[in-house]
Specification:
alpha+beta
């Protein structure tokens, strides 16, 4: 019999632990927790309580929901979860210890055009810094194999500006070249669709 103890796999949060991973699939919000998949309306109460607590700690997000004319408490929570945690990224949205982690990028279809971007959805934190909207656009184009000249033309900026963004992105991500940006972006689903 083969010894399986040496096999190491990285499993999504919630499959084999008490972490929580929210995701959107088939027009529904779901979460993985303790080996179970829950649909919206079936989430364990402690998860809803933890999200409500997080919402109350983020007045800018709450103000964005109201400005979006979402005022029903259940619908507010639903939209908050979609915007903040909707992507399946392999990192826990709520850790085993109940800590909420805001690090994920979710391409909801409104990115770049949403007046609530950065207020309701999470900006991407890398170390102690955040990636800007422009840096995220450039990361997506790099991950799609585009060269600086193409990126500059598509974003209507100079090649020098693209090169400066590249350097800032590399510094924030802790990589030494544009090539190092690609796996980071792919792992987090920050690619052009």
């Amino acid at each position: 019999m083969m010894n399986l103890s040496k096999i190491k796999q990285s499993l999504p949060p919630g499959i084999e632990d008490n972490g929580v991973e929210f995701y959107v699939n088939e027009n529904d919000i779901k979460c993985l927790h303790s080996g179970n998949t829950y649909r919206w309306g079936e989430f364990p109460q402690w998860i809803l309580d933890r999200i409500e607590e997080d919402m109350l700690q983020n007045p800018e997000a709450m103000n964005a929901l109201v400005a979006w004319d979402i005022t029903d408490s259940e619908e507010m929570m639903r939209q908050y979860i979609v915007c903040r945690f909707g992507g399946f990224d392999g990192h826990p949205d709520i850790t085993n210890d109940g800590e909420i982690i805001h690090v994920e990028y979710f391409e909801c279809g409104r990115r770049g055009n949403c007046s609530f971007e950065g207020k309701l959805c999470s900006s991407i934190k890398v170390g102690e810094e955040h990636l800007t909207k422009q840096e995220i656009k450039i990361i997506k184009k790099i991950a799609s194999g585009k060269h600086n000249r193409e990126i500059a033309e598509e974003l209507n900026i100079s090649e020098e500006t693209v090169a400066t963004h590249n350097k800032n992105i590399q510094r924030k991500l802790g990589v030494t070249s544009k090539l190092g940006i690609v796996p980071w972006a792919v792992k987090r689903n920050i690619v052009e669709s």
